[in-house]
Design brief:
Elements lengths: L6 H17 L3 H7 L4 H14 L17 H11 L22 H12 L5 E4 L15 E5 L5 E8 L10 E8 L3 E8 L5 E5 L13 E10 L3 E2 L5 H37 L1 E2 L2 E2 L4 H29 L4 H30 L9 H8 L10 H15 L2 H4 L3 H6 L1
Parallel strand pairs: 1-4
Antiparallel strand pairs: 2-3, 3-7, 4-5, 5-8, 6-7, 9-10
Helix pairs in contact: 1-3, 1-4, 4-6, 4-7, 6-7, 6-8, 7-8, 8-9, 8-10
Bound molecules: flavin-adenine dinucleotide.
Flavin-adenine dinucleotide binds next to strand 1 and helix 10.
């Protein structure tokens, strides 16, 4: 067993740190203006291309960086240190787009990988959040020869929906069930109904979309008719690992800042770090970061060895659950160590405190992760999820 980073992983980490350093100067501007100027976006785009970290989840032959899951985790861990969700400027097309046909790849995925167009994922609805099977959006076939579909419905919380060029819309097709469609945002009948404000300041928005008699061709079906839930689940699985990785990076940044502050600030005649209660907060935080980073790396590595998708799905749920909850505690302690200064928006720890809250909600709440894990224990037993997945590895 060798836990050392390979030269390639070391190089990727260095490139991700380089990208972080190029983007971090934009944080204050983004916080103050709730977004970036076109010049800011253009600079960041250039930095992404310069470090070669665009579309890290897509194969090299399609123009992506072609990283393994473990390699992606290493990159996301670094980018997660950015506040204002500036990590989301480092575009990574939705994993479900790997199901594109060659023609769809040319029209939608290729430009997405090159950073010329953006996608956004539209699954959640007013009455379908944790239970996406309850969606009410429909895609009804029209034309006797199956020429296309008419989409009607509403989608909530569409991250990047403000700048996206096309949306992956989950809609029910009669006799088939939930299906993903590639829907260009400029089609007649696609409308942003509302752009609510959220707890965090995010470089993009999460608008609410209405679809009113939106006509799309049969060539916009992504994957199989009725295959939308499977594609969505696959997307969730890897995305949950990436969330785990980002929250760990964020927690490390918060702890680094809190440690520096605790070493330099003197109160009651001693440095903060000399007070035992502060020491305990630092120690608890370091332990939570180290443990979650190790486990997230482990599960990412297991993904790359292949193995049972259902077990990996549960393990990815474990990484997200454990890392997002632990990182939330770490940033909370960091705010506490900074005292009143920790409550000021100009402090990265304050922004991380607000920003990490959603990681316990999106891509499946903590409660839903627990259901996934408990169902796995019930169906296939405990061994597969609390060990190193040796079966998958020896079979590889
Ligand atoms: C900032 C932000 C960005 C988002 N981006 C996107 C996006 O890009 N695309 C997209 O499609 N969606 C997106 N979402 C939606 C997100 O995935 C959902 O909010 C999430 O899945 C929870 O759904 P809900 O909000 O409807 O809560 P609900 O499902 O109503 O849950 C409410 C509470 O009940 C609990 N609960 C629900 N069911 C159960 C159960 N069976 N057992 C126990 N407890 C349960 C939940 O854990 C939660 O605590 C985003 C959300 C936010 C806040």
């Amino acid at each position: 067993m060798d836990f050392a980073y390979t030269p390639r992983l070391t190089d990727l980490k260095a490139r991700a740190i380089d990208l972080y350093e190029r983007i971090v100067p934009y944080e204050a501007e983004c916080e103050e203006n709730n977004g970036l100027t076109p010049a800011g976006f253009a600079d960041i785009r250039e930095a992404v291309l310069a470090t070669g970290l665009q579309a890290i989840n897509m194969p090299e032959e399609w123009g992506g960086a072609g990283l393994s899951v473990l390699e992606q985790v290493v990159v996301q861990d670094e980018l997660g240190k950015l506040t204002n969700a500036l990590w989301d400027c480092v575009w990574r097309p939705a994993n479900a787009l790997r199901a594109c046909t060659p023609a769809q790849r040319e029209r939608w995925l290729g430009p997405d990988i090159r950073g010329e167009r953006r996608d956004a994922v539209a699954i959640t609805e007013a009455d379908a959040g944790s239970d996406p099977g309850n969606i009410a959006t429909t895609a009804v076939p029209e034309g006797s020869g199956g020429e296309g579909y008419v989409i009607n419905g509403e989608k909530w919380f569409v991250t990047v929906g403000d700048v996206a060029d096309f949306l992956l819309v989950l809609a029910n097709v009669p006799d088939h069930g939930p299906t993903l469609f590639l829907v260009d945002k400029d089609l007649p009948g696609v409308r942003v109904a509302r752009t609510p404000r959220y707890t965090h300041t995010f470089v993009y928005e999460h608008p609410e979309f209405h679809f009113e008699d939106v006509r799309v061709g049969a060539d916009t079906v992504l994957g199989e008719l009725g295959g939308g839930m499977d594609l969505t689940r696959d997307w969730f699985t890897e995305e949950r690992l990436m969330i785990a990785a980002r929250t760990i990076g964020a927690a490390e940044r918060a702890l680094t800042l809190a440690t520096e502050w605790a070493q330099s600030r003197v109160q009651g005649g001693a440095r903060l770090i000399d007070h035992q209660m502060i020491k305990a907060m630092l120690a608890d935080s370091a332990a939570e970061i180290a443990v979650n980073r190790a486990f997230t790396h482990q599960v990412a590595w297991e993904f790359d060895q292949g193995g049972d998708r259902k077990t990996l799905h549960a393990k990815a749920a474990m990484t997200k659950l454990a890392a997002s909850e632990a990182s939330g505690r770490v940033v909370d302690r960091a705010v506490q160590i900074f005292g009143g200064r920790g409550y000021m928006r100009e402090q990265p720890v304050e922004r991380l405190y607000r920003e990490l809250r959603v990681d316990r909600i999106w891509e499946g709440t903590s409660e839903i992760q627990k259901l996934v894990i408990a169902n796995e224990i019930d169906k296939r037993g405990l061994a597969g999820i609390v060990t190193f997945g040796h079966e998958a590895v020896t079979a590889a």
